[in-house]
Specification:
Beta-Lactamase; 4 domains; five-stranded antiparallel beta sheet; 20 helices; 22 strands; catalytic activity; Diguanylate cyclase; PAC; Rev_trsase/Diguanyl_cyclase; PAS_4
Length: 578
């Protein structure tokens, strides 16, 4: 095959997209994302992760259905056309999925033609982005705190929604030549860039969002001038499909002038050296020295780094990579991912390698990887294709960063922000968010939701008689008894003192009364031994089911609270329905 034939074949493979073998669903079974095979838009097969994502308990509940019927009305026609292969879209498509259980979820889909499996065949890959939406809401709640911090920054800090700036700090406004920050709010993000940068980022916002490392650019002044800057783009969790992100920038004009002068001096020196080193042996010597330097530099990089050829086999890796996998300097050279990496990680490695080769862009993702000592680490990976002098892909370069500690810290911060310190159940703020969400969902998709309000009878007497430490023990025992009596889908929150509330989704008043009675009996059975004798106590519970007059969660809880006081007035240790 001639060189031109190989180039044409490679171009055709990139145009056609990924190819799927007969057993590709077995490979995608390990994926955490939805993966299903469709023929003429009808689901033929689906992996285990996709079944619950579409609200089903078993795969056979989905097989035979049209995939577009599981997509929100706004997206049905587009998805149907892509599944019938009348259109081909390489990028992800933000949609809202309509699950079989009646709920909805935000998702990103990619639809790949799979004609090699049969006429009209396509593979759908979907990723649940509902969690990103929740995190975005938390980010917006922290916006005021964010602005106080960034207003003190000496550099530009801008918050962007979609293609427009919704906030920029005072330093950033001065840097861009605006009289006030308000003059820039609402302007297109692309307008802050100059020349070709404006054309690139104005035409495709994903190119800007894909650059998560520091990046040198040219920014534009309001007076028409331009200056050199270094920016960093940080994507933020978003509740919808419109991306939100933060741009940080600092003026590096002076730095670049110094670098240019240094480069000029270096170029002059290189020219002089070149004139004095025309001999082939000397040129070879310099090349060998450069190669040795690069190898030493790679060895010194503290993060695992590797590179592969177009055949997917390892060509090299640094010391950090060898230590991570517990291998020797040449043990994996010439071997593929399937032959070397943990089986659970192979599909991710192959898919990301393929995407980097096909797109020619930086591919970044987070994953989990089993390292040499057998432990599972959270990793952030970046990959990009490396190219020949003729701009032909020669392979993939990758680097990883261990983010296990960061992930653990994030989880701990989320736990601290949402749970009650004493009992470990949800705190008042997070519980009110949960019950508010359940009430809104019940109004959109009519179904029963019930709330319980309960507290410890004569709690003040316990505190006065046995002291506050024993009162705390009673509160914890009460929380444990409630937690044991409810389902994982139910939510228990401590509203304050000895007062608790519970929300029971998909539960009518009759079923809720059974749960409440079970809790009452469990609390009555609590016995705490003390130096002053055994402490026993009871609880009174008010129960209310959401009705049309309850405009929000507060209305539902108010009726449950009224029922609680009715139980108190009725002699305590009772369950009363509103």
């Amino acid at each position: 095959m001639t060189e031109q034939s190989r180039l044409n074949a490679a171009a055709e493979r990139r145009r056609m997209g990924p190819r799927f073998s007969a057993n590709f669903m077995m490979v995608l079974e390990v994926s955490r994302d939805l993966a299903c095979l469709c023929a003429d838009g009808v689901i033929l097969d689906i992996n285990s992760a996709g079944t619950p994502m579409l609200g089903a308990e078993r795969a056979d509940q989905l097989i035979g259905r049209r995939f577009s019927d599981l997509v929100g009305d706004d997206y049905t026609q587009v998805v149907d056309e892509l599944l019938r292969l009348t259109e081909v879209e390489r990028s992800t498509i933000p949609v809202q999925l309509r699950r079989l259980d009646g709920s909805a979820a935000d998702s990103e889909l990619q639809i790949h033609p799979a004609r090699e499996l049969g006429p009209g065949h396509a593979v759908v890959i979907g990723r649940d982005i509902s969690r990103q939406g929740r995190l975005a809401r938390t980010a917006r709640e922290s916006e005021d705190r964010f602005r106080v911090l960034v207003e003190k920054s000496m550099h530009l800090v801008a918050l962007c929604h979609g293609g427009r700036m919704v906030y920029i700090n005072t330093a950033g406004a001065r840097m861009l030549g605006a009289a006030t920050a308000g003059d820039l709010q609402g302007t297109p993000v692309a307008d802050m860039f100059h020349g070709e940068y404006r054309a690139i980022f104005g035409g495709d916002l994903t190119l800007l969002l894909g650059e998560t490392d520091m990046m040198p650019v040219r920014l534009a002044n309001r007076d028409g001038g331009a200056f050199d800057a270094q920016i960093k783009v940080t994507p933020l969790p978003s509740a919808g499909v419109v991306p939100e992100f933060m741009i940080e920038a600092r003026d590096i004009s002076s730095h670049l002038r110094a670098v240019a002068a240094l480069r000029h001096m270096n170029e002059t020196l290189e020219a002089q050296v070149s004139e004095r080193t025309r001999e082939l042996a000397q040129e070879r010597s310099h090349a060998l020295e450069a190669k040795s330097f690069v190898e030493s530099l790679l060895e010194a990089v503290p993060n695992p780094l590797w590179w592969k050829g177009v055949d997917g086999c390892f060509r090299g890796y640094n010391r950090a990579f060898r230590e991570m996998h517990g291998i020797g300097p040449t043990e994996w050279i010439g071997r593929s991912s399937i032959e070397t990496l943990p089986a659970s990680f192979v599909p991710t490695a192959i898919m990301s390698d393929t995407k980097a080769m096909m797109t020619g862009t930086l591919i970044q993702y987070e994953t989990q990887l089993e390292v040499a000592d057998g432990s599972l680490h959270d990793m952030a990976a970046s990959k990009i294709a490396w190219r020949s002098a003729d701009d032909v892909p020669e392979g993939v370069i990758g680097v990883m960063l261990d983010i296990t500690d960061r992930k653990a810290m994030e989880a701990e911060l989320r736990r601290m922000a949402t749970t009650d310190v004493l009992t470990g159940v949800y705190n008042r703020r997070h519980f009110m968010t949960i019950i508010g969400t359940e009430v809104e969902r019940a109004h959109r998709h009519p179904r029963p939701v019930t709330a319980l309000m309960l507290d410890i009878d004569h709690f003040k007497r316990i505190n006065d008689t046995f002291g506050h430490p024993l009162g705390d023990e009673a509160i914890k025992a009460m929380a444990n008894a409630c937690q044991d009596a409810i389902r994982t889908v139910d939510a228990l929150g401590r509203l304050g003192g000895e007062e608790f509330a519970i929300v029971l989704p998909d539960t009518d008043l009759a079923a809720a009364m059974v749960v409440a009675e079970r809790i009452r009996a469990a609390v009555m059975a609590i016995s705490i031994a003390t130096g002053k004798g055994v402490v026993e106590f009871t609880t009174s519970i008010g129960v209310a089911q959401l009705c049309d007059d309850d405009g929000n969660a507060e209305g539902l809880l108010s009726r449950a609270d009224a029922a609680l006081y009715a139980a108190k007035n009725g002699g305590r240790n009772k369950v009363v329905a509103a």
